[in-house]
Amino acid sequence: MQAALRILSICFVIVHGIAALAVAGEAQNAFNEGAKLYRAGKFKEAIGAYDRAIRAAPTAAEPYNNRGLAHYKLGQSEAAIKDYDEAIKLNPKLTDAYYNRGNVHFAQKQYESAIKDYDEVIKQGPKSSLPFRQRGLAYSGSGQFDKALQDFNQAQKLNPKDPEIYYSRGLVYRRLGKFDQAVQDYTEAIKLNPKNAESYNNRANAYSLLGKYDNALKDYDQALKLEPKNARIYANRGAVKLRLGKSDEGKKDLHTAVELDPSLKDKIDPLLGASKVSPSKSE
Hints:
Strand content: under 5%
Distance between the termini: 8 Å
CATH class of the domain at 1-108: Mainly Alpha
CATH architecture of the domain at 1-108: Alpha Horseshoe
Number of strands: 0
Radius of gyration: 22 Å
CATH superfamily of the domain at 1-108: Tetratricopeptide repeat domain
Shape: elongated
C-alpha cells in the first residue's frame, strides 16, 4: 500500500532573548511573558504578549520570530510566514527565522522554498545537524533523493545520535530500492529510540520487500504493541500474512485496519479479494 512520506517531527526554534542593545523593559517583559505562555501551550495569549513586545520594540526581530511560532501552532501558516519575513527583514542574520520559515514551507510541501531557507541557515552556521536534516527531508519530498542522501550523511556526521536522521535516510534508501541499507538505518533508529512504532513498521516494510517475511511480521507485531490503534500497520501485516498463505489471519488484520480507518477501504478491498498479495509498500 502506497502512502505519503511520514516525518517523525518538525523541530522549530524559539528565541529566548531580544538581542537589541537597548530595548525598553516593557518589551523584554512582554517578550519573556510570550515565551512562557508559548511553552505552556497558550498560543493565543502568547501572540498577545508578543504583540505588546513588538509595539514596545518595533525594530526587534526576535518577537516576530516567536510570534510566528505561535501563529503556526494555531494553524495560521500564512501569518507565521509574514512574521518570519519581517524578522528576516529586520535582522538578516537571524538564522532561527530562516529555519522556522523553512519548516513552515516544508509543512506546506513548498519544498523549493524550504530548501532556499535551509540553504541560508547552513551558509550562516554549517555546524548544526538540524538544517541538513530538514533540507534532506525537503529534497526527499521533491524527489531529489541523491541530494537528500548527501544531507542526511552530513547530518549524521554532525549528530550521530539523532534517530530521526537514520529513520529519514531509511525512507530514502527504500525509495531508491536499497532495501538492505534501509534496514540498517531503521535498525539504528530503533537502537536510539526503541519506542517509535514507525521505525519498526518501516523496517518491516523493507524486510518484506527483501522477502524476509518472518522478520517483517516480528517488526509489525512490535509496532502494534507500541501503537495498537495504527490502521496502516494492521494493513501492512495483513498483506504479508496473505502473501504467506495465512488467509484468515491476514483478512482479520485487513478488516481491523478498515475498522480503525475507513478511508483505507478502497485500497484494502482489492487485497481481500485477491488470492495472492504482493509485499506492502506503505510508509
